[in-house]
Each structure stands twice: as structure tokens, then as C-alpha cells.
Amino acid sequence: MSLPFFGWEVTYDDESPRLELGASQQPKDKGVYKMYHGTSVANARLIITNGFKQSSAGMLGKGVYVSRDQKKAERYPLNNNHSDRVALELRVRLGRVKRIDTDNHPMQYTWSTQGYDTAWVPPNCGMKAVPSGLEEDCVSDPQRVKVVGIAKAPNTVLAELQKLVADSLTNPSAGDDGAPDACSLCKRKTQQGSPHIKQPCWGCGKNICTLMSKHVCSASY
User: Where are the beta strands (DSSP E) in the chain?
Assistant: First the structure.
């Protein structure tokens, strides 16, 4: 006897990091997340082509400043006209994370010398250095940050920047060295040499991954 197959829905109870996490949620150590960085059009071209460089200073010291809140990135550079602002979409390997949530925190500028890869300032923590109240992160090693898309850019340069990103993704040397990729279907991490199994659904023919949390077959019987 054969039964029609209409799909599935599961809930994972593991700690496998996903690419997306709310800005108010504390990032997991060793997680890989979608984040954003705001910059000028000229700097966007340089970053996409050559990768990030450490900033010389900042509220958390040297590093690459990013956020999981796209609105935060869209505010930068603060003094630039909207026609000269670009929000880059990033894939970031956080490594070991230190929470910095008070002014004059004893590790505000020294976290990177004490075994941490990323400093995290949670939203609405009350720090005077973050009047917007929006989440902010500082990643010490630029190689942990990779541009994977353009979240927002002026229409006059959007296509140009998107092409630069597409070209850069074929060059693994421009940041994100050795980072695990994410499955395009289930969005869960994949390990090198162990790709997820992808195949057409027997019913509707749509490409599926066996680790997807949900699939509803659109075929009618």
C-alpha cells in the first residue's frame, strides 16, 4: 500500500548555529551569523574587492564593527549623505564572544588580548557610546568577516556593487578564511567535505534538503 507524501515539519533541539539571529539575542560562541556593515560607496568597493581591515580605534578598540541590526548599518557613515551610504551584508564567524554592556567596562578595550574574538554590545544596554541603543559587535580579525551581498545601496551603484560581490565570492582569500558554508536550502551550516543531501521532492519536484525544518509538498493528488 502506498501513501501520498505531503512534506514534514520538525523542531531542532541542537545548538547548531544558524545564519540569522535576532539582534537582542546573545550570539553563541563559534557561531556564524548574517550581519551588516555601513560604509561609503568608495569604501564599499575597496572592502568587497580586498576584504576588511581593522579600524584604528573605536568604542571597543581595534577591529571590524558590524551589527545584526540592518538599521544600525544603514545609519553609517553618520555624516554622509544618503546617496553615499552602503549597507553590506556579511557572513561573520564570531569565535569566542565577550559581552560588553556598561560604560568603562574593565575589558572594553582589552577583550581581544584576553582570548576573545568578538565583543558584543547588546541593544538598549544604556552605554553612552551607543545613543541609538542598537546592537553592535566588534570582530578583532578581519578574516572572520566576509561580504556576501548588498543589503542597501543607492540605485546608481547597486548593480555595480552586486557584481563586485559576485566576483569576490569566487575568491576565498578576501576574508572568511576557512569558514563553513551554509546550505542554500536549510540554512544550516555545512562542514567541508560533507555537503547536505539535496534532491527533488517526489511529489512537487521542488529541490529540498533532508535537514530542512519544514517542507510542504504543493503537488495535488
Answer: 7-9, 32-39, 64-66, 86-93, 97-99, 118-121, 136-139, 145-152, 181-182, 189-190, 198-200, 207-209, 214-216
